[in-house]
Write a structure and sequence with these properties.
1% strand, 672 residues, 40 helices, single chain, mainly alpha
């Protein structure tokens, strides 16, 4: 119900009893070993090395012994010997924990500059999912290879720019490449700009230290007070001083894009290079666009070369252009994006719409015009029954969302292979014991990474079936979603607690497909899900919201501990959703945004022109809420197809979004 949720479980004895038989211990487990595992989990979170070492013998023989051994060694890895590490890797060879510890060890070897040890271990690293480790490997290649890869610098740059936190590996590799003049120094400044815009001052300082260590104090000054820094600087003559002015303007734009625009336009623009000006105008335009300001396109209009902008800047220009109905700008902006960005369903869809919207008179009359054919080809390339833009593309091609044919039934052999998979069994055991985070990581490793390329579609179908049978709905859904050659909607869109949901929605006049679409996104049907901000249960209800809603719907004698009760959670969650929906004039898009981010923000976001709700949703300023709204509405359409057995329209559920009619009383002024 609130943004920034991280789901964690509470211990479910029923669930444990239901799945323990699936796990096959590697040795005779000691009595109480499960309790020891749970104690070790807590000790690991506390960083209690002594407790971990003391408890480890009690976990021997447990199906999750590898986790216990990992926690114990990881907690003291800085002081562990290389022999201890190698003993662990041999003992737990082939497991998730082996490769995760190898990841940790490689990071430590990189920090110690033990390139020989790193080079010996890196080829055994299966997951290859750590960008910093990749950068260490690229750094070694640069140092030792007579013919390093021609794409090495680009690989380092991509990894470095993708990392949001301060790191050693990519900063080291980039610094060495810049020192060797194999990467432009400008890349360090660009990294600093990205960090400054994201309020990551340490990352910005680390990047600046590569190219201008003498300026570190000034970076701190401008980070703390960009206006004061700019006011005290008369001119920007040197290369470094120009870059510092750019950083200050970016920092200012994050809080006040209009003030940054005034500064740039009034004093600094003539002193900066075109690349520097374009980047700052791109940041100002982006910040204005995220505020849904009508000035965004004007700011973007000051950019003289689109290639100086990042994909994020271009994406927000495209959103601002969609909001303004400026289809030519939508089209030119998408064309300026990187190939990776252009290939996403979001921008494939809007490029197709822009092509169709910019047809001239003769082209509109010609069904075989090249532009129309290109648009149709783009839509056909992404159209499908599952996914927001996939469904919209399907409708634009004149079709509706229907349930796809089921894949061939699993054979007994396929089911048995999943049941016997040791990684899946350890995952089920961990989830049953209450170690959901560990179980999810184990499951994902077994399905995605244990073998090159991950499981085949049929293997994924069998693994998802195993999770469904155990009612581990999040693994059921997420695993099934990875199949490429077919879709099993029974797995992807399950309907647990059907009688309770249908009964409640009928009582209050709420679309059950909408409720299922929302629950699927909120909790993946985990009854005892708990979020990092305190939301609980299937519908992720916050305590204060639960108390308010209980009073509104006449739920007498309600106490906060009742939120975890399934039927109470459904009653309160659906009651609150109905109140929000009524408050937002029946708009599913607005109500979904309000359920995720609170009703106050969507009330502001709906102001402005009346928009196609798909355009409105794409302009939601919060990335999490933007993604949430689109997924809930796409889920709803799929559930409607399942429940009704009839073709369904996403567009009919979207409608339009615009300002509230001021003449109509606001029914939900006190909505929390």
């Amino acid at each position: 119900m609130k943004i920034n949720k991280i789901l964690t479980p509470s211990l479910s004895a029923t669930l444990i009893a239901g799945i323990l038989f699936a796990a096959l211990p590697s040795a005779q487990a000691q009595p109480g070993s499960d309790d020891a595992l749970l104690q070790m989990s807590q000790a690991f979170k506390r960083g209690d090395k002594a407790a971990l070492t003391a408890l480890l013998p009690l976990a021997r023989g447990n199906p999750l012994e590898a986790w216990a051994a990992y926690w114990e060694l990881k907690a003291r890895l800085d002081d562990a010997s290389a022999q201890e590490v190698q003993d662990f890797l041999r003992r737990y060879a082939g497991t998730y924990q082996e490769d995760r510890l190898r990841n940790d060890w490689l990071l430590l070897l990189g920090q110690r500059r033990d390139w020989e040890g790193f080079a010996a271990e890196y080829p055994k690293f299966r997951m290859r999912d750590d960008r910093e480790v990749q950068c260490y490997a690229l750094h070694i290649e640069q140092l030792t290879s007579a013919t390093p890869s021609p794409t090495l610098a680009d690989q380092v740059r991509k990894n470095w720019f993708a990392l949001h936190k301060a790191d050693d590996g990519c900063t080291l590799a980039a610094g060495a490449l810049i020192a060797a003049q194999k990467m432009p120094a400008l890349e360090a400044w660009r990294k600093a700009r990205l960090a400054m815009a994201a309020n990551r001052l340490t990352v910005a300082r680390n990047a600046v230290e590569i190219v201008a260590p003498e300026a570190l104090n000034l970076v701190s000054d401008l980070g703390n007070s960009p206006a004061k820094f700019l006011a005290g600087k008369a001119v920007a003559m040197s290369r470094v001083s120009k870059q510092l002015v750019v950083l200050a303007l970016i920092r200012m734009a994050a809080n006040d894009p209009d003030a940054a625009a005034t500064q740039l336009d009034g004093k600094w623009s003539p002193q900066l290079t075109s690349e520097e000006r374009n980047w700052v105008w791109g940041v100002i335009g982006q910040q204005a666009a995220t505020r849904l300001s009508g000035d965004a396109l004007n700011y973007y209009g000051r950019v003289s070369r689109d290639s100086d902008l990042t994909d994020v800047m271009l994406e927000w220009r495209a959103r601002a252009a969609l909001r303004a109905g400026n289809w030519p700008t939508v089209l030119t902006t998408i064309k300026a994006m990187s190939e990776d960005a252009r290939r996403t369903p979001t921008w494939v869809y809007w490029k197709a719409r822009a092509l169709l919207a910019t047809l001239n008179g003769a082209q509109r009359a010609d069904p075989a015009s090249p532009r129309r054919l290109e648009a149709n080809a783009l839509l056909q390339g992404i159209a499908g029954p599952s996914g927001f833009y996939e469904q919209l593309a399907l409708e634009d091609l004149g079709q509706r969302v229907t349930v796809p044919p089921r894949p061939a039934p699993l054979t007994a052999q396929e089911k048995q292979a999943a049941l016997a998979d040791p990684g899946l069994n350890r995952a089920l055991y961990a989830i049953g014991l209450g170690l959901r985070s560990e179980g999810v990581r184990e499951w994902n490793y077994a399905t995605n990474l244990h073998t090159a390329g991950g499981m085949s579609d049929r293997e994924l179908l069998a693994a998802a079936d195993l999770a469904c049978q155990r009612e581990i709905w999040d693994r059921c859904i997420n695993t099934s979603e990875r199949t490429k050659s077919f879709m099993d909607f029974d797995q992807r869109f399950p309907m647990p607690h059907e009688q309770a949901v249908i009964k409640r929605t009928r009582e209050i006049g709420l679309d059950p497909a909408y409720v299922y679409g929302l629950i699927r996104q909120e909790s993946r049907f985990i009854i005892d899900a708990q979020s990092g901000v305190g939301a609980s249960g299937l519908m992720q209800v916050m305590p204060a919201t639960a108390r308010w809603t209980a009073r509104k719907i006449g739920l007498v004698d309600f106490t906060p501990d009742q939120i975890s009760n399934r039927d109470t959670n459904i009653a309160i969650g659906t009651g609150y959703l109905k109140l929000i929906l009524d408050d937002f004039d029946g708009s599913m898009a607005l109500a979904a945004a309000a359920y995720n981010a609170g009703p106050g923000r969507p009330r502001s976001w709906r102001n402005g022109p009346v928009l196609d709700a798909a355009i409105w949703a794409e302009n939601v300023p919060f990335a999490e809420t933007r993604d949430y709204v689109k997924k809930v509405l796409a889920n709803t359409t799929d559930y409607a197809a399942i429940l009704s057995g009839q073709p369904q329209s996403l567009k009919a559920r979207l409608g339009t979004v615009g300002p509230r009619d001021a003449s109509v009383p606001d029914p939900g002024k006190d909505l929390p």
